[in-house]
Amino acid sequence: MCEEYTGPDAVVDPADPDPQLRQLAEENKKLREQIQQMRAAAAAKKKVEFSKLIFLGVSIATIAICRMIWITMDTSVLAYLIPAVFAEMASATGFYYTKAKAENKIKLMTLNGVKPEPSNFETY
Predict the structure, then answer these.
(1) Beta-carbon-side half-sphere exposure of residue 124 (alpha carbons within 13 Å)
(2) Residue 95: which of 72, 124, 61 has the closest Cα?
(3) Which of 66, 87, 113, 114 pairs as cysteine with 109 (C-beta 3.0–4.6 A)?
């Protein structure tokens, strides 16, 4: 008759897995909640940035004009179109990449625990 004594003055075994299991269960629950929050944030509809809309608009206009030139077989427009469209696309691309660079810098600074300050963005 070897029964384990579980009264108030029972000796607690340090290798008892019950407290460890409870702790792991609590951590698991917290991690599941974090995963649900991350999935909900990823599923939320994100607004398209204005710079991407400009870039897309210029690209679509270039393709549409090139198609009209193909249909009409009139290449005289190309003397004005090529410099205008590609200058616009170059400036839009340059501004887009500069903006993306600044956003990535802010993201990396926050991930590393550094507070973004205006003095961090003076160099290009």
Answers:
(1) 5
(2) 124
(3) 114
pTM: 0.40
State percent of the chain over pLDDT 90: 4
Residue 80, both tokens: 């004005």
**Diameter over CA atoms, the chain:** 105
Cα–Cα distance for residue pair 61/41, rounded to 1 Å: 34
Q: Which DSSP state fits 15?
A: T
| 115 has a pLDDT exceeding 60 | yes
For residue range 39-68, list pLDDT tens digits in order: 887 777 677 777 778 778 878 888 888 888
Q: Indicate the Cα dihedral angle 93, 98, 104, 106, nearest 10°.
A: -150
Task: State both tokens at 120.
Answer: 């961090």
Q: So what's the pLDDT on residue 20?
A: 81
Listed in sequence order, the residues at least 6 apart from 110 whose beta carbon sits closer than 8 Å to its beta carbon are: 116
